[in-house]
């Protein structure tokens, strides 16, 4: 007997469960779906709270989690436990952040490694994946509440320039939020779909997507041919956006009120109040010529549209330089662009619209809500995947994720499930022990975080890696999957050129029931799988830290005082005790953090001695 779902909010029949489209943004996020009756994409506005959910997460003193508009209020009152712009941290190490680490009002842990960043709130440690999952969970709950039906599957968008690590982090966040992520779609592709571009398989167009959000800017040039979207070029700045418009206004007010900039920035509450007031001014000036307000009793906050445009002109000019570069990279002239699409709330600023239309020599498309356009496109992509649009060709896709085993028995996905085939993807790895000359590459298929729960496809050894210190060899592992489902896995050590490859014959001899069961297991065990992964990652980080510190003491003990050595050994022992006692990830990271904070000052000092001695023609270990 066939099951038929009824959507209680519309009273209509639903043949399939809803697959939603999600725009997980730096500043704001939202969720959309295809209305079952008029078949048009619509952004979900749950309980009249608006379609936009600010990408802000707050942890209360009682340990509760607040997401969205309500969490924004805590940016001023409790900035240390309120997290924003988390998307920028996805798939990033502390070293990737460079000079931007001071941008955040919360504590980002520096473990001085290539490892992914961790964020501290009170005595707990979070990854950007966990924080992003909280935002996705909120979007999922809003969708379920509004549609009165369970939501388990989604399409999530990412910027076109996101690398493999960032895309995988986005998938992991979806999984942790209880969603099966059917596909990761480029934001410009989603925006084009929302405008109906690329839906007709016979259409051929070249499109420019200008996306100016709250914290990021990018321009993408797309070629659309027979329903296939190809990114010809992308350019931009991950630290340029509407926030910079706000900052320009704040700096103007600081100057006008004769305030000391450093004092304002150090006072987190005042700086956040000014930030929110500047955001209000920017929005008002898109509609009117003058904005007047105050912060507290004495700080005057007035600005004209003319002055605002004067302040932001250099920022808009930087986006135009990116447009020029993207066009040069795509080897195109502005007149060869068929359509220009505006994405992101900051494109509402009249000066931005004028600059873009002038550059491309044609009026930019802004008829759809620029905040919603990406989510609407993601909903269309979700509808295509649901098989509801028979006129659109869907290329063959991989039924299950393909990946390799990494330290601690974890599955590191290389080609995610539902990737179009043929396809090629790869990651770079390194050794974990000094002098390691062999690396075992074990290939798995499945959706679980721990390899023992997945299906092993092949295994081979990359032999003859030159003996080097841990972390020095660079090993590229590439997966090449052809149209017949034959997978070729190759591993190459880049410094020496040593290579090894294996061909995995079509191992997709799984029945639909087996694939379905594997997917079901991955969803039902998602929470414990992610908890296991994070515990293993914490232990791995700790073990690497112990290895590095003990090696450092052994080689450079002569440059340290007895007190420093004893304190270091004490902290090392504490970390070993936490590991031996099977401590949870927060306890492990707390011990790692203590050891890192204590050792980093003299590690820098020894580095200085090393440089001086090397310059004098001497060498220390």
From TrEMBL:
One of its GO terms (biological process) is iron-sulfur cluster assembly. Keywords: ATP-binding, Chaperone, Nucleotide-binding. Transmembrane segments: none annotated. Gene3D superfamilies: 1.20.1270.10, 3.30.420.40, Actin, Chain A, domain 4, Substrate Binding Domain Of DNAk, Chain A, domain 1. The keyword Ligase does not apply. The keyword Nucleotide-binding applies. InterPro entries: ATPase_NBD, Heat_shock_70_CS, HSP70_C_sf, HSP70_peptide-bd_sf, Hsp_70_fam, ISC_FeS_clus_asmbl_HscA. It comes from the Bacteria. GO terms for molecular function: ATP binding; ATP hydrolysis activity; ATP-dependent protein folding chaperone; unfolded protein binding. Belongs to the heat shock protein 70 family. PANTHER family: HEAT SHOCK PROTEIN 70KDA. This is Molecular chaperone HscA. It comes from Pontibacter chinhatensis.
């Amino acid at each position: 007997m066939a099951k038929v779902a009824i959507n209680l909010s519309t009273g209509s029949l639903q043949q399939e469960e809803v697959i939603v489209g999600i725009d997980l943004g730096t500043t704001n996020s939202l969720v959309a779906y295809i209305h079952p009756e008029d078949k048009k994409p619509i952004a979900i506005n749950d309980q009249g709270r608006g379609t936009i959910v600010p990408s802000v997460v707050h942890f209360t003193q009682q340990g509760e989690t607040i997401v969205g508009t309500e969490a924004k209020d805590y940016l001023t009152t409790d900035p240390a436990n309120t997290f924003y712009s988390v998307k920028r941290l996805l798939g990033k190490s502390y070293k990737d952040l460079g000079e931007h680490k001071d941008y955040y009002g919360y504590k980002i842990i520096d473990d001085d490694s290539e490892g992914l960043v961790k964020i501290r709130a009170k005595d707990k440690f979070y990854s950007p994946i966990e924080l992003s999952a909280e935002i996705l969970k909120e979007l999922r709950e809003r969708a379920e509440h509004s549609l009165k039906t369970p939501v388990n599957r989604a399409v999530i968008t990412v910027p076109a320039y996101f690398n493999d690590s960032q895309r995988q982090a986005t998938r992991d966040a979806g999984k942790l939020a209880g969603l099966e992520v059917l596909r990761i779609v480029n934001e410009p592709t989603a925006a084009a779909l929302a405008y109906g571009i690329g839906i007709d398989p016979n259409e051929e167009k070249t499109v420019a997507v200008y996306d100016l959000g709250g914290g990021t800017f990018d321009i993408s040039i797309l070629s659309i041919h027979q329903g296939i979207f190809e990114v010809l070029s992308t350019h931009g700045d991950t630290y340029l956006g509407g926030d910079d418009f706000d900052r320009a206004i704040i700096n103007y007010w600081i100057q006008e009120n004769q305030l000391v900039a450093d004092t304002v920035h150090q006072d987190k509450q005042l700086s956040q109040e000014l930030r929110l007031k500047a955001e209000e001014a920017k929005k008002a000036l898109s509609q009117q010529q003058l904005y007047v307000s105050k912060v507290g009793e004495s700080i005057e906050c007035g600005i004209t549209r003319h002055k605002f445009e004067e302040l932001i002109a250099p920022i808009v000019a930087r986006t135009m330089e990116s447009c020029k570069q993207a066009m040069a990279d795509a080897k195109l002239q502005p007149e060869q662009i068929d359509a220009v699409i505006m994405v992101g709330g900051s494109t509402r600023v009249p000066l931005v619209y004028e600059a873009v239309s002038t550059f491309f020599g044609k009026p930019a498309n802004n008829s759809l809500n620029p905040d919603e356009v990406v989510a609407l496109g993601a909903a269309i992509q979700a509808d295509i995947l649901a098989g509801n649009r028979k006129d659109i060709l869907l290329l063959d896709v991989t039924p299950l994720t393909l990946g390799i085993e990494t330290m601690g028995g974890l599955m590191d996905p290389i080609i995610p499930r539902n990737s179009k085939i043929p396809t090629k993807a790869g990651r770079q790895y390194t050794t974990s022990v000094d002098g390691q000359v062999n690396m075992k590459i074990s290939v798995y298929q499945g959706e679980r975080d721990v390899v023992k729960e997945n299906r092993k496809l092949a295994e081979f050894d990359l032999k003859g890696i030159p003996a080097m210190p841990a972390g020095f060899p660079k090993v590229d592992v590439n997966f090449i999957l052809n149209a017949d489902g034959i997978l070729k896995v190759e591993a190459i050590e880049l410094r020496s050129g040593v290579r090894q490859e294996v061909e995995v014959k079509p191992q997709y001899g799984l029945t639909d029931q087996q694939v379905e069961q594997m997917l079901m297991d991955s969803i039902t065990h998602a929470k414990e799988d992610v908890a296991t992964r994070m515990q293993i990652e914490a232990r791995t980080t700790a073990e690497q830290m112990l290895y590095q510190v003990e090696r450092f003491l052994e080689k450079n003990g002569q440059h340290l005082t007895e007190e420093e050595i004893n304190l270091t050994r004490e902290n090392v022992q504490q970390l070993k005790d936490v590991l031996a006692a099977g401590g949870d990830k927060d306890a492990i990271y707390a011990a790692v953090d203590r050891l890192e904070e204590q050792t980093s000052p003299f590690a820098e000092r020894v580095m200085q001695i090393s440089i001086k001695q090397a310059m004098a023609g001497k060498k220390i270990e």
